Amino acid sequence: MSDIRHALLRRDPLSAAKEVLYHLDISLGSALQSASGPASGLEKSTVDLVEEFIFHIHPHYSVFICITLNFINCSYAVRQVIFSALFSLQGNKADESRMAMLSKLVSMAIAVCRVPILECAATWLQRTHSAWCVRLARALVDDYCALVPCSIATLQNICSASPRFCCQLITAVTALYDFSSDELTPPPALLEMVVGWIAEDPRLLLLTFINTPLTSSLPIGCLEVTPLMGLLRWCVKAPLAYQRGQKLSLTNNQAETDKGMGCEELYSKLHLSILQVFLMLQVHLTEQNLFGRLAVLQVESAAALIEEVSRLSDELNPLHAANQIQLALDRLAQAVQVAMATGALLCTRVLVFLFVHFLLQLVMSGPVVSPPHGSPFQPSPYTYVHPARPSPLSPLSSAHAALSPLHTHPALSPHRPLVPHSTHSSLGSHAFHPAAVAFPYRPIR
What's the pLDDT tens digit per position in 361-375? Predict the structure, then answer.
């Protein structure tokens, strides 16, 4: 191997990189044809050649062309193994060079629509730690949304060429933009592109989940198997995050308000698409005899989202952000209820009760002054559970129906007599205390 290294040192960088890739192709091709396969990995000498002559040198654009051309005549299995050998992180100094070259390579593959590289990048995104996946997603968003905004159309057209890559890219960008700060709010162009992808074909969000064998175990810390939870986080936290991002000055405040109102229709459309995907997922789980046995959304992720919503709500003034808090809670409750009904989220009865109880407590929290002991309960001026148009999918709607006072209804037909009610307490005609009324819980079967 030392002879090969000395021979490579006498070559120019491009010629040396071509020779190393050719040697890598031959080695991995022989390993795939053998009985043992490439499971044992590359020899250390081969890894050293790859790091020295591909990653330690200044990465030339011609090296990317060389890698692209090298993939033309390779089979799918050989391409995947070569890509993994080149860009699997080793925990050494070459990792930064690997990420820099990978970002440029994938960005170039998007520009020239090189599907083999995009398919390899999709596998890389599925098996690599989420921290590195987020770095790749940030680089691609910078290239196609920030540096040259008009180039977003090039990235948008990739969905028809490599939907698997787009599915993994959506998962990565939802992990990147988590609304934890104003800088981590998805750019409007990126949001519009993702919503357009999903509206055109909602099944895009389930590609990785459907094509991943149940017996395969993904590395610890990798991205979620579907982008559903990340997109749900976008829909739920967006109203609160945009409200938080408003500036103090009138001009900036108006600009931020217009930005939030402009994106609100996109988030509503995205929320509807997520509910539709849950229904599609129910069909798939039923056909595969996995309904009630395999959770797509993790309870821990749902609990973390509830905590994030609670924290954001505490940061806002409930009197000035009542509509935003109500919208976030409605979306969260709708999504959780549909996810449970379709088998995407598996919860025990205790967890369901605690979840609904927490939602009610969150809605009821606010600037309420407790009345003196023994005095009637006085309602707060903050309308907690009185949305203008409550959604029929939201459990908060049923809670509102159970907790609100009785209204006058049309008389029933004679064959359905009214059942006499017990005497009500001395509360006012428009007052109610949620702690004194049991929540009507019916488990979803």
Answer: 655 554 333 444 444
